[in-house]
Amino acid sequence: MAKELRYADSASRSMVKRAADARIDTVWDRYESMQPQCGFGTLGICCKNCSMGPCRIDPFGDGPQVGICGANADTIAARNLARMVAGGAAAHSDHGRDIAHTLLMAAENPNSDYKVKDEEKLKKIADLYGIKTEGREVREIAGEVARAALKEFGQQEGEIKMIESAPLARYKLWRERGVAPRAIDREIVEIMHRTHIGVDTDYRNIVRQSVRAAISDGWGGSMIATELSDVLFGTPSPIRATANLGVINKDYVNLIVHGHEPTLSDIIAAVSMDKELLKKAQKKGAKGINIGGICCTANEILMRHGIPVAGSVMQQELAVLTGAVELMLVDVQCIYPGLETVAKCFHTELITTSPKAKIPGATHIEFHEDRAVEIAKQIIETAIDNFPNRQKENVFIPDHTERLVAGFSAESVFDFLGGKYRSTYRPLNNAIIEGRIRGGAGVIGCSNPNMEYEEGHIEMVKELIKNDVIVVTTGCNAISCGKHGLLQPETAFKVAGKGLAEVCRAVGIPPVLHLGSCVDNSRILRVLTNIVAEGGLGDDISDLPAAGAAPEWMSEKAVSIGMYFVASGVYTMIGRPLPVTGSKNLYNYLTDEMEKEFGGKWAFEQDPIEAARKMIMHIDKKRKALKLKPMINEQAFAPVA
Amino acid sequence: MGKIIEVKIEKCMACRSCEFACAVAHSKKKDPEALVLDGEKPGHRINVEAYGRNAIPINCNHCDEAACLMACPTGAIYRENDKGPVLFNSERCIGCKMCVQACPFGVITVSPNGKGVLKCDLCIERLAKGQDPACVVACPTGALRYIEQEKSNKEKRQRVAKKLTLAMEAQATEPKE
User: Fold this and answer.
1) In a designed cystine with A296, which of A170, A229, A316, A517 is the match (CB 3.0 to 4.6 A)?
2) Helix/strand/coil percent split, chain A, to 5
């Protein structure tokens, strides 16, 4: 029996009830039936990296304290953590690689369905790679940029170039500590090597390699994904849209795109406007074609086209449960295999498109970038053809949507702050220096049924903005914020502290800024770098009064993201702890010693308010170190120093 | 003096190794790898229950006044001798499930293959070979122990005695006002 959601938006609550009534299992039910979950895995002290094992360490100290090879809890937990980082960095970076390939294709083939949409950005990246732009054709530059980006993945010499866009002090620190990544793929491969039986035993050394791989994600693969997506699909600028399951329209052919990469979804969004297809849909009795997004695909097409968001990762099955989804289109990452079981209960066609991600029982229509429009048409036609199969009496669409503003980027924040003609971060830096804004926080990440859905996200963000901390958000946190009205300036201002609200009103931005999908956490790195460059707040990201958080994290990608934020000098707070609590030494290294090495560290706190307050205390510590002025307005949370 | 399966709930890690070992011990080949491949479903007689974030293993206590035994109309649930474990004979079972209803711990369950019930037999086959029950051997943290009832009591008394002695000594060395 499904549990009742206590906190989530009303649409999710009613859909979970509908699932229970229909006896259809969703992620929450599968979580319940998985209880109790194995403590060895939770503590990170189970190892199955070789076949002498599986081994596990007795956390009570009575049983074995080392595995058969002799690895202790520190080594085992560190190796497991490193492999999580490898998984996460691989996912993000492979996404980046695909975008780079698409750009290369667009450059080489003048008839490609993809074109360079943001020349300015292309030239900026060309500059970074030392590629000449003057007097050259856009396609020529694009080709060279794509090749330079692709080289970052597999080069055998030197270091990746993208990391040079970090603040100089940070870049130097990485080189000094020996964690400057040499190539994106290489660092992931090296994690797999080091965690093989009988290689790296020193838990600190293992974590340092995870740091190197994570940097190659955040400042490499993810950054390439973001930057080149902007080049191909346009750098987002603020846009109004709506979110939640209510965006599914009972009179329309509903096509939900779910996953991560924008290559297909962006084309789908464009092709869905096709008049022929509209006519075809009308012939089948629908008023038109309605596209909605789930998870980070939603964020990608939301911020560039204003396509409505149907929901976050945990609502993927709930969307199908409306009975009004003709087709769910998925590519890669965070697609629950359970989706197929739910889809089978309805007329919904589940379509997989990536050769990397097939689901038995789903229809596979493989996506090829060189035939993008043709394939997109085929998919939309499949959706239209499926419309008559909908069981109208079995449709229930919850009547809830929320308005939001999304589509900020490191560049557009820039424009807003200073105005189009004198774009600058100065007003933001000044507001922090003068004590109108206390600091900044990036709140990001997944949702996880091991916590009350959305409570962690929303309560944390509210507590932060209440205390004059400006919040940038990405991924599924952004979607939750959207559903709860926090991306709507009018609603957010009601919660925000006086100083933050004043500044935001003056420059015309909301206190919670939607910065995109989960690869777009690289935009947060860019924002931090820009703030450092603007001056007055120290020389490095670790000097800034800033913190990061993933209150409801679950994926390996989240671990990689957390690790690159820590590596970039950010205090990084997550809800449930990393699976390392079986090793006191590793725990201490991650939550304490790392700060001395990298200026950032991990923190774990499940209570979202308490977690937000710990972040604020860190921000206060940094304000004090920078000798910034006291806050102008009285603060809701003001710990006695 | 009978031995019991003693449970230290604070040591349970919820790995469910006991459940798996129970199934293997009651399978035909007693081979964990074959179990899944053969599709055999011997079921488990010990259950790790979740309560909040706690994991509590619950197993048959082989009660002296066993409710299951008293409820069974056909003698399918029986004891070989006064001190022996409460056993189940599938040939005598009529499937009335009275034992399932009667057990106050909920550890007699309907067999997954639909024939008869699953009931802990304290691994009599293993005991005969001088081995401890499978669940106990599988437990990686010692949350389960197969131990003389009196020996377990003795350990507990020793712990209490130690505590009291230390408290007494601490009091004796405290400076008097």
Assistant:
1) A517
2) 55, 10, 35
Listed as ranges, residues in chain B with pLDDT below 50 are 1
Sole residue written with tokens 């490095």:
A540
Are B142 and A62 in contact (CB < 8 Å)? Answer: yes
Q: Which pLDDT value is given to residue A2?
A: 52
Separation between Cα atoms, residue A17 and residue A29, nearest integer Å: 11
- Which residue's structure tokens are 């201490």? A588
Report yes or no: A164 at the B interface, CB cutoff 8 Å.
no
φ and ψ of A311, to 5 deg = 170, 180
**DSSP conformational letter for B3:** E
Which two structure tokens, joined as six digits, stand for A446? 């997944």
Residues 258-297 of A with CB under 8 A from B: none
**Do residues B89 and B76 make contact, with C-beta atoms less than 8 angstroms apart?**
yes
A59 contacts chain B (CB < 8 A): yes
User: Residue A522 belongs to what domain range?
Assistant: 404-625
Read off φ and ψ for residue A206, nearest 5 degrees: -65, -45
Q: Of the candidates A429, A457, A434, which has an alpha carbon nearest to the alpha carbon of residue A444? A: A457
Q: Is the pTM of this model over 0.90?
A: yes
Residues A82 and A167 occupy one common structural domain: yes
Question: Which residues share a beta bridge with A305?
Answer: none
Half-sphere exposure of A437 (CA within 13 A, CB side): 28
Sequence-distant (6+) residues with CB within 8 A of B95 are B115, B116
Q: What is the dihedral of CA A74, A75, A81, A86, to 10 degrees?
A: 160
Q: Sign of dihedral through CA atoms A429, A431, A435, A438?
A: negative
Say if residue A257 is in the same domain as residue A383.
yes
**What is the domain class of B62-106 according to CATH?**
alpha beta
pLDDT 10s digits, A427-464: 899 999 999 999 999 999 999 999 999 999 999 999 99
* Cα A497 from Cα A505, distance rounded (Å): 12
Q: Kindly determine whether residue A36 and residue B141, on different chains, have CB atoms separated by under 8 Å.
A: no
A284 vs B87: CA distance, rounded Å: 66
Q: Is residue A399 in some structural domain? A: no
Cβ–Cβ gap B140/A56 under 8 Å: yes
pLDDT at A1: 43
Q: Environment class of residue A204 by beta-carbon count within 10 Å: exposed (0-12), middle (13-18) or buried (19+)? A: middle
Residues B97, B93: Cα–Cα separation, whole Å: 9
User: Domain spans of chain B?
Assistant: 62-106
| Cis preceding-peptide flag for A398 (omega within 30 of 0) | no
Which pLDDT score is estimated for A413?
77
Q: Which residues from A are below 8 Å from B16, CB to CB?
A: 36, 38
Residues A365 and A484 in one domain: no
Residue ranges for chain A with pLDDT beneath 70: 1-2, 414, 418-422, 641
The verdict on residue A2 lying in a domain is no
Closest among A601, A602, A600 to A576, alpha carbons compared: A602
Q: Which residues of A25-62 are buried (b: 16+ CB within 10 A; e: fewer)?
A: bbbbbeeeeeebbbbbbbbbbbbebeeebebbbbbeee
The CATH number of whichever domain residue A184 belongs to comes to 1.20.1270.30
Instruction: State the best of A47, A56, A76 to mutate against chain B, taking most chain B CBs within 10 Å.
Output: A56
Q: How far apart are CA A225 and CA A183, in angstroms?
A: 15
